[in-house]
Structures are given as C-alpha cells and as structure tokens.
Amino acid sequence: MSMIFSLTTERKKDVEVILKRYPTKRSALLPVLWLVQEQEGYVPDGAVAYVAELLELKDVEVWGVVTFYTMFQRKPIGKHHVRVCTNMCCRLRGADMVLEHLKKKLGVDAGQTTPDGKFHLSTVECLGSCGTAPMMQIDNDYYEDLTERKIDDILRAPLKTSV
C-alpha cells in the first residue's frame, strides 16, 4: 500500500514555475521528480501516483523514469550522498583506491548508508569529469584529482550542501 503523498506549498509553487518553462506537462517530469526527491530525500511510492496525476501521465510512465535513472533514490538514504565514479577513465586513475578508502573510512559498502545516517555510498558509471579523475560527488559538489589525503580532508570539513 502506497503512502499518501503531497508536495509542500512551496514546492507546489515551484511546480507552477517549472510547468511554464515546458511546452507540455510531460516535459516537466524530471524536474518535478527532482522536487519530490529534494523534499523527501528519495522518491516514495506514493509520490509516483501524485506526480502522474499532476502531469496527466500514467503511473507506469512515471515508474519507468524513476526506475530507469539512477539519480532517483527509491528508498531513504543518508543525509549526504557520496557517489564515486567508476568509469574507465576514473578507474585508470585510481577510482578503486577512492572507493576502497571511502568504504574503510565510512565503514560501509557501496549501496549502504552509515549507521549514523550521515553518508550513503554509491558507485556511478560516469560523472563527466574524466580529465580530473579520479573523482567523486557529494550531494551536488564535485571533488576531483582525489588522493586518500584529499578524501580525508573532505570528510573532515563541513560539507557545502545537503540532500
């Protein structure tokens, strides 16, 4: 059974602005799903029917987008989402070291959230920063040319953004 979902009043106003930017409601699907994820931290089951009705789509069309794109989370994750690029360029320049170091520092494997709920560790195929590999993304910020020391410094410093 899906939970009943609704966007906040502020987010509903954001939807109105978004809809004015696009020629059809269908075109606003990705930005509206982003609003849901920003509000909840993930896309809950109940949000799918809500978004489908809002944009005059079928539930299955929204499900297809939510389940296709790895940028949408299907369950709650940690406050800060750490994504490690594991594409060939990053792997050739040390992505495996980055991932192993993060697993050790955070005490979790890829796909897991730290017990305190602060970090969720994921691997992604490409973050589009091949020239500055290896790299990771935490929330909306990129960290490039990583070394173990840089990773330690990043994790010690206050993070710029949060989910």
- Largest sheet, order of strands side by side? 2-3-1-4-5
Please provide the count of β strands.
Answer: 5
Uncertain ranges: none
Average residue pLDDT: 92
> What order do the helices and strands follow?
HHHHEHHEEEEH
Using the coordinates shown, work out and report the CATH topology of the largest domain: Glutaredoxin
Fraction of residues in β-strands: 5-15%
Rg result: 18 Å
Q: Given this structure, which CATH class of the largest domain is correct?
A: Alpha Beta
CATH-derived architecture of the largest domain: 3-Layer(aba) Sandwich
Proportion of residues in helical segments: 40-55%
* Termini Cα gap: 26 Å
Question: In DSSP terms, counting alpha (H) and pi (I) runs of 4 or more, how many helices?
Answer: 7
SSE-based structural type: alpha+beta
